[in-house]
Amino acid sequence: MASGLRAVVGVGAVGGLLVVLLWSEQQASNRMPAQARGRGDTGEEDTGFRVVMERFEAPEINHNHSTNNNNNNNNNNKLHRRHGNAIVSPRSSAVHAAAPPPPPPPPPPQPSVLAAADADADAGHPESRKASQGPPRSSRTIIYVITPTYRRPEQVAELTRLSQTLMLVPDLHWLVVEDAVSPTRRVLSFLDSCSVPHTYLLGTASRRYKGANKPRGVSNRNAGLKWVKVHAKDGVIYFADDDNTYDYRIFDEIRMTRQVSMFPVGLVTRLGVSTPIVSSGKLVGFYDGWIAGRRFPVDMAGFAVNVQFYLKRNAPLMPYSVGFEEDGFLKALRIKPEEIEPLAENCTKILVWHTRTVKTQPAVKMPDTDKVTKTNLHHLKSQIVFPSGLS
Ligand code: UGA
Ligand code: MN
User: Fold this and answer.
1) Tell me, what's the pLDDT at 165?
2) Which of 68, 79, 177, 230 could form a disulfide linkage to 203, CB 3.0–4.6 angstroms apart?
3) Neighbour-count burial for 59-77, b at 16+ CB within 10 Å, e otherwise
């Protein structure tokens, strides 16, 4: 994406501010297919979001680790049920009671207990918390981290790394949104033992987008945004791709967002960083390897939005417009560049990186012999991604 960079420094005025822009035409052609150029629409109508599984409290950590896999799985399931999580069938939207009425839940491990408010999904569910219980309650601002993800060999590894950063952050609710027709089994079982409070949603992309023409992660982020609109009254929204690298301290920064905040993202284009340019505490421009006429030439990981502000702006969705997702979304929020809040010590610190993981081929088939079915290989088989059709 960053090869053959041709950078030109430009100076212009936006909203009365001097704006210094770094520009690269090469980047533009790499990142944006011709048919996507200039499309600023909010994309196709999404049908909404489907809650598949959620946990509003961290599970108790079982310190008596058993060496028996089956026992561990059972423990996880029990924990899951005891905490009253609704499991919604992704196909029928029917709600299945996971267990008989549970005993009162134990005190939460941190003051970040979130209450489900999805009246549709939880209606009539014996274990569901009622919508009247309201949005997540905490003395601190909740951060809604929206993570798009999709099935591939490295998916669970990416989610594991990200989750173990998020475990360091209190008062956070993780929206794991999968671009898939039906949930990937390995993701659900990963989440079953994930201690970060989370909700799993499906955010299936339309089949009409393929290859370089596909705006990656947009259907997922929009499903997450719709969930936030239904469930949250305040808090902060952050889009965290599953393959990036996050210093846990970025979340302390993000929590301060009153309208829209921005901060540097490392490893974006040949410039090595994408960041607002800040002078005397004010945003005066953007430093980014691909400007392409964007008013907000920033990376997806480089901004956060306050929920109250988002709702006041009528909760816009992200456009299906390759390369212009961030800009289209930020423009729809009707924020002026001079109103942007620079974080990370006036954008002097890089606390998030746009890392990329080398693609791994799906694994070759495991034979159905006794060496597999009667040994540990049988257990590992269910954790490996094979080409579709094989399991
Ligand atoms: C970045 C931005 O995050 C995207 O919003 C933007 O569309 C993209 O650049 C671009 O310029 O084309 P990038 O690192 O290049 O993303 O792409 P990926 O990491 O492959 O995908 C971004 C996110 O979408 C990831 O969280 C990934 O898991 C998810 N994704 C990707 C899907 O949900 N479905 C897909 O088919 C591909
Ligand atoms: Mn990425």
Assistant:
1) 98
2) 177
3) beeeeeeeeeeeeeeebbe
DSSP state of 24: E
pLDDT digits (tens, 9 = 90+) for 264-315: 999 999 999 999 999 999 999 999 999 999 999 999 999 999 999 999 999 9
Half-sphere exposure of 196 (CA within 13 A, CB side): 28
Cβ distance 150 to 201 under 8 Å? Answer: no
The CB of 300 under 6 Å from ligand 1? The reply is yes
Taking a C-beta distance cutoff of 8 angstroms, is the pair 246, 169 a contact?
A: no
Give, for 83, the enclosing helix (H) or strand (E). none
**Which ligand has the minimum distance to the alpha carbon of residue 154?**
1
Angle between helices 155-166 and 185-192 (to 10 degrees): 20
* 3-class state of residue 228 by DSSP: helix
* CA dist list (Å): 56 to 21, 100, 112, 192, 210: 43, 19, 8, 12, 35
Distance CA 54, CA 128 (A): 11
At 50 the pLDDT is: 65
Q: Which residues pair with 353 in a beta bridge?
A: 245, 266
Q: List all residues 6 or more positions away from 100 whose beta carbon is below 8 Å from its beta carbon.
A: none
pLDDT confidence of residue 6: 29
φ and ψ of 224, to 5 deg: -65, -40
Q: Is 314 exposed, middle or buried (0-12, 13-18, 19+ CB in 10 A)?
A: exposed
**DSSP code string of 119-132:** HHHHTT-TTPPPGG
* Predicted pLDDT of residue 118: 32
Ligand 1 pocket residue status of 112, Cβ below 6 Å: no
The pLDDT, as a whole number, for residue 276 is: 98
**Which residues lie at CB < 5 A from ion ligand 2?**
241, 243
Give the tokens for residue 8: 């030109």
Tokens, residue 319: 């456009």
**Residue 305, both tokens:** 């939005």
pLDDT on residue 28? 31
Low-confidence ranges of the chain (pLDDT < 50): 1-47, 59-135, 391
Nearest to 328 by CA among 179, 218, 232: 218
Known catalytic residues? 326
Calculate how far, in angstroms, residue 120's C-alpha sits from the geometric centre of ligand 1.
Answer: 30
**Tokens at 160, concatenated:** 């594991």
